[in-house]
Hints:
single chain, mainly beta, Jelly Rolls, 9-stranded antiparallel beta sheet, about 50% strand, signal
Amino acid sequence: MNFRFAIFFYLLLTHLTFTVALCSEFTRSAIEVPLGGNTFQTKGTNTEKVTAEGISQWENSDTEFSIYVKSDKAATVNLALDIISQVGNSQISVNLNGQNQLVNLSAGTTGNISIGELELVKGYNVINLRGIEKSGSDFAKITAIQINSEKSLALDFVKDNVDNRYYWGRRGPSVHLSYTLPADKDFKWFYNEVTVPVGSDPIGSYFMANGFGEGYFGIQVNSDSERRILFSVWSPFKTDNPGEIPDEEKIILLKKGEDVYTGEFGNEGSGGQSFLKYAWKAGETYSFLNSVEPDGKGNTIYTAYFLDPEVKEWILIASFLRPKTDTWYKRPHSFLENFVPESGYLERRANYDNQWAADHEGNWQELNEAKFTGDDIAKRGYRMDYEGGEKSGKFYLRNGGFFDGFIELNSMHKRKPEGIPPTIAFDKLP
């Protein structure tokens, strides 16, 4: 009997051990983060290559790549790299939130390479990659980072490249404020003021001030040496290629200001574009005024003015005619976006204040309510570094930088009314 009991106990213990091991395996979380949509070169004197396949060129020792992932909880994780085509020997540094591991890669290495056990924090985490030494042309070519955990983790990052989401994800989440416009009047004019805080204006930023149903008007940072005031109107013909627009549906330039460039644009719809190279400054407040008015012949005229605070005079940007359109000002809104994917890891912010709409007789009405929304990348939760709404009596938008904390999309916000409409001599506008 004792012998049979011993056999039974052994079998029972073996079964329980196997079951526990099996359950442990099933509860382990293994999540693959593709580098193509989540990696940025954050340091280095030369530009490396981050493509949809991941890090495809890494030649320089002063280069740093940063990968960002948001976690719903703190956890101990095991990181691994997915390596392709390792040519030569190399040593690289993998740093997660200040915890560093050195990884040695041998020529011919491919596949999944374990890094070791590290700690994730709740919120955004940054994984930095640095090259230490190498014998080949590249330190490594990496397609993904695998995050393994005993805990069940919910991680936010750009998960797929459907509809080119790696590109849009690296640009970062675009966010918008849609101002509530009374429906019982026909409005011609919209006035808005924008202030970009010092240090919140990296290259690639578009601080759009005066949006309308058929276009947009705002300021951009195009390079270290160039900034623009941009005003564009979409054609009623839907295409991303301006060459496809038939003549009868093209945007017609009626007038433009001094030194203003005008032409066509594409890729995000198509239409007429105008811009003035203008060295606007962070920390200054700029005023925007534009009009939308039907011409009585089945077309609509769009005109944009910019107030130079130094000379205190309105500058004409341009006036366009949009055919096959009969409308007054609809959907006044502002947005904040980044149009350079390489700078999508940098934070940007703008404050929007003193919004007013006026009818064709110049009667003003203050707009002090706005709805906060985001683009596809924000809606999917692929990037959660966004905010918008009201602070200190002003509306604001903020994105990029992988900061923790965000504002719910589709939330409504109000600012304290100013009560004093802008003073504009409409008959003296250029």
